[in-house]
Amino acid sequence: MPRIAVTPVLVGLNVAVFGLMLAGGVHPMAPTIDSLIQWGANYGPKTTNGEWWRMFTAMFLHIGVLHLLFNMVALWNVGGFMERVLGTAGCVVLYLLAGLLGSVASVAWNPFVVSAGASGAIFGLYGGLLAFLLRHRDTTSYASLAALRTNTLAFVGYNLLYGVVQEGIDMAAHLGWLAGGFLCGFVLTQPRRQASRARRYVHSALVGLIGLLLIGEMAMRLPRVEDVEATLQHFASLDTTTLATFNNAVSQFQQGQLTEADLVRVLEQEVLPPWRAQRDTLLRLQGLRRLPPRQQRLVSALVEYMTARQEGWELLQEGLRTNDPRALKSANEKQHQADQVLGQLGTAEKK
């Protein structure tokens, strides 16, 4: 390919999307996690609950202007070379398949890490370049081979090292993109011979179709990831409404507007059922091994709080039914324990 066409388009798309993000109020240097998710970043709880398009849109989002500039320089350098090697269609196939495979790897390995950026697809292009160098090491001049090898290893090595030492970097996506790019590049970079343009397009289209089917199958096999933030928001709403219901019933009971049987009914029908269901949800979250440390600590504290509150209400229910003063005293102690846990949780969150 004497001239390149798709690489400038890809660079333009990435820059245009970033411009739209800025116009939408996203911070140019440090976009928030919420803003990235709103714009289509790859995030396990969203992606595996039906928003599969995030695996594609995440490839065109960037976490700040420096992230964008670094990736666009790399994309222009390696993209132009790979487009000449593979042709326009082959380069597009390699870019998209490598990026999608990395997105699948990201959700499978780090489902609670927000993933965004063209760096993954660029890793795929470098993986394809590695495959090209491997297949054509005997037909490429030593000077060209050395320069290409140095540039490739420098980019890949820097990103992998940075991912190891910097907390929060999605290494799964990087490795997935690199492996995907190498595999696709190995298939797409045929031995050097004259081939018609139509034949190259058919070959690239066939690789793209098979790749999409395989990636789609892997994506469908990913387990559904619980949306922790949504669950925590639901807990906050439930805590407010349930305590309001309980306190209102206790106030009416103290004023003689409700009998003991009425208060038991409120506990049994309005307070405890939604509380137990929410606690069960938090218990499932507590058992997730890959939950980020901060969320793991928060969920554990909320489980402790909800357990104490629930046991207090159950003891109150038992004490009212059997007129047992010991159960009523234990119920008050449990409620006091729940208040202490909640107070400690609020203090920890402020820190």
Protein traits:
351 residues; mainly alpha; Rhomboid-like fold; 2 domains; 0% strand
If you had to describe this structure to a student in words, what would you say it looks like?
With 351 residues, this protein is an all-alpha fold. The protein folds into two domains: 6-220, Up-down Bundle (Rhomboid-like fold); 228-350. The protein contains 13 helices and no strands. It has helices spanning 6-23, 33-38, 44-47, 54-57, 65-109, 119-135, 142-165, 171-188, 197-220, 228-254, 260-286, 293-322, 325-350. Helix 7 (142-165) runs antiparallel to helix 8 (171-188). The protein is elongated. The mean pLDDT is 83.
Produce a short descriptive summary.
The protein is 77% helix and 0% strand.
The termini sit apart by 58 Å
Largest sheet: none
Q: How many domains, as an integer?
A: 2
CATH class of the largest domain: Mainly Alpha
**Whole-number radius of gyration?**
28 Å
Shape estimate: elongated
Helix content: over 70%
**CATH H-tier superfamily of the largest domain:** Rhomboid-like
Mean pLDDT: 83
Number of strands: 0
- Indicate the structural class: mainly alpha
Q: How many H/I helical runs?
A: 13
Quaternary structure: single chain
> CATH topology of the largest domain, which one?
Rhomboid-like fold
SSE order, one letter for each helix or strand = HHHHHHHHHHHHH
Residue runs with pLDDT of under 50 for 5 or more positions: none
CATH architecture of the largest domain: Up-down Bundle
Share of β-strand residues: under 5%
List the SSEs and their pairings.
Elements: H1 6-23, H2 33-38, H3 44-47, H4 54-57, H5 65-109, H6 119-135, H7 142-165, H8 171-188, H9 197-220, H10 228-254, H11 260-286, H12 293-322, H13 325-350
Helix pairs in contact: 1-5, 5-6, 5-8, 5-9, 6-7, 6-8, 7-8, 10-11, 11-12, 12-13
